[in-house]
Amino acid sequence: MSWEDGLAATTRRRFGQRERHDFLVFLALAAPNILLIVAFTYRPVLNNIYFSTLDWTLGAATAVQVGFGNYVEFFTSSDFTQVATVTAVFTAATVGGSMVLGLLVALALHRRMPGSGFARAAVFSPYVLSGVGVGLVWLFIFDPVIGVLAGLLRMIGLPSPQWFNDPSLALAMVIIVYIWKNVGYAAVIYLAGLQAIPQDLREAIALDGAGPWRTFRSLVLPLLSPTTFFLLITSVLSSLQAFDIIRIMTPLGTGTTTLIYEAYLQAFGGYNRAGYSATVSTVLFALLVVLTLVQVLVLERRVHYR
Amino acid sequence: MTTQYVDRRGFLRIAGAAGITAALAACGGPTTTAPGAGPAAPEQLDYTGVKPAPEITFWSNNPGGSQAVTQQIIDAFHASQKDIKVSLVSAGKDYEEIAQKFQTAQTGGALPDLVVLSDVWWFRYKMLGSIIPLDALISAVGIETADYRQQLLADYQYGDAQWALPWARSTPLFYYNKAHWAAAGLPDRAPATWAEFAEWAPKLQAANAGLQHPFQLPALAGYAGWTFQNVLWGHGGGWSKDFDVTCDSPESVSAIRFLQDAVYTGKWAGVASKDSADDLSAGAVSATVSSTGSLVGILKAAKFDVGAGFLPGGPAATSPVCPTGGAGVGIPKAISKERQLAAATFLKFLTSPENTVTFAGATGYMPVRTSADTAGLIAKSPLSKIAIDQLAVTRVQDRARVFFPGADQEMAKTCAKILTQQADVATELAALKTTLTGIFDREVKPRI
After folding, report:
1. Of A301, B274, B377, B409, which is the most exposed, with the fewest CB atoms less than 10 Å away?
2. Which residue of B has its CA nearest to A59?
3. Most B CBs within 10 Å: which of A19, A145, A261, A262, as the mutation test of the B interface?
4. What is the homologous superfamily of the domain B55-169+325-372 according to CATH?
5. CA distance A173 to chain B (A)
6. Is residue B58 classed as helix, strand or coil in its secondary structure?
7. Cβ atoms B35, A64 nearer than 8 A
8. pLDDT for B120-179, tens place per residue?
9. Which chain B residues are Cβ-neighbours of A251 within 8 angstroms?
10. B301 in contact with A at a CB cutoff of 8 Å?
11. Looking at the domain that runs over B172-323+396-447, which CATH code has it been given?
């Protein structure tokens, strides 16, 4: 063996030892987390996909393999169009509503004025409240007989709308509540975005003669696009998984049966169709994956980073 | 010799493949069977020589705010013997929540020893094999079934077996505001027929009695399928006859159209958003139909004299037109015989003549034993006599409502379309028949 070969062997051995050491450190640090993620995230997802191929009644020890039968039934059922429409309207309204209102609130809070600290806390506080508690309070507000809103309407001689019995109003009701709850989150994120816009850029555009609207449209909005992009992804994912307030305010899902609520109703709302419910959940999972990919791969290209 | 190194990518590939393989291999859930595998005959267990378990749990949703009185009965049980300790577990706020927990416990473990089963849930548990027939236990602990009100006992019988015992049993009752009645010049009684109430309604409207309507139909979720049987039976219809769905029969269409006309044509009825008993107590409406389990709550909340009466009937039938309802108590299958025996021992005590009166006095539910001394109960709450007397004219519920999974929800959805969106009655009930028949064919027929 020449001295060159000896050097190469020694280098490879040392390199291999370091690699092995790094690998063991990586294993020690990452393995517990990987195991937990596999056990409690990926495994349930895979289980769910498997259950979606079964005709399985919740609580039954046995089930019948039906392949894609549940998927065919779901996509061809009369409920599918309704569930898809409700999901789309609910998601668009809650995401759009809370982001637009959140931006407006953030613009208002961005000005320095007395009590702005309290105002920021007040605006954000609904976001950290329990959805169940929020639902119970708003149940009382919307109650058409003994509710606060009904009382106010009676004072001006108007009857209360049937918020709970009319499917369209029921959907509007839960959208209002979700926007109220989420607007503070969007406002705080937008506020952080607004505070990150450099003052020299504002001064530069002002020197160019731009007014408030032009400044907002040509400077603020483009520079807020990373914030908008982040909010869009998190809000869409959050809206598609919204459950607690819908469950509390409209337990039967009258007019408010979104995809996730349909999954709940089918398994636990009296039907006990665990296999069919798993199908709806799998469809929701696929939708979330597709939407996230579209947002990351397509929309991110339109984001302006400084 | 050359050394084989595994780089990080290689490791991740191997770990990922191993993880997916492990996950797929670990896919839990049910055992798959061939389609059409029929049900097994109920197995009556033998408890000879079995010693009761020392500790058991009782899962209840505390219907009618019964947590305190149930604990009181448990304390009395502990005082009466030292061998069995019972723990009361609040397992949900309503029948649906306790059902969810019980069903998930079938696969998740930690089953109760005694569980509250509502009228629309027990048959599902029977079909799934989650509960046991009680006949052997009834003999083992000496429960006198002959002393139970037979119509309430019969609600839990199927296939020559007794699957639960009645406990928090109720019927709907007609409640009215006596002050509104007096203002309208009406006799102090419930109407005998719905036609009679339709004649009374304009007088209540003219007297401007309630804030909203003379009559409030109960909230449709959970109540439509149950209480509307009264109107359906009165018109000669029903949700079903045995396992045949009859909700689209001319009599059934006529009955539901009567309700729709009351809302939209006569405008004397509204639909409750949450609890019609609350609307009555608040003075917003003059009358409603609600569970006897609401009796105590209504009497506590109302600031006026409350009247009550049998459910109205007609035009085809005036009696029996009152459905039974509420909940019984059953025992899970997947627990030991010792626990089952202990549970049955407590069940005997829970539904004893004395305790059924104690329970009824605290909640408004019906005493389930014929030998129960109800004199004190009636003296304390005279309206409870009406509820007890009405038991004699009750009718077992239509199977489509209580035996078909999800049928109650479908009935509520259909009634919501008819009563809150003015949908065509015949069309909606025909669609309901299709749905209910589908549920029967898919969920029930293979299992009976």
Report:
1. A301
2. B103
3. A145
4. Periplasmic binding protein-like II (3.40.190.10)
5. 13
6. strand
7. yes
8. 899 999 998 899 999 999 999 999 999 999 989 999 999 899 999 999 999 999 999 999
9. 221
10. no
11. 3.40.190.10
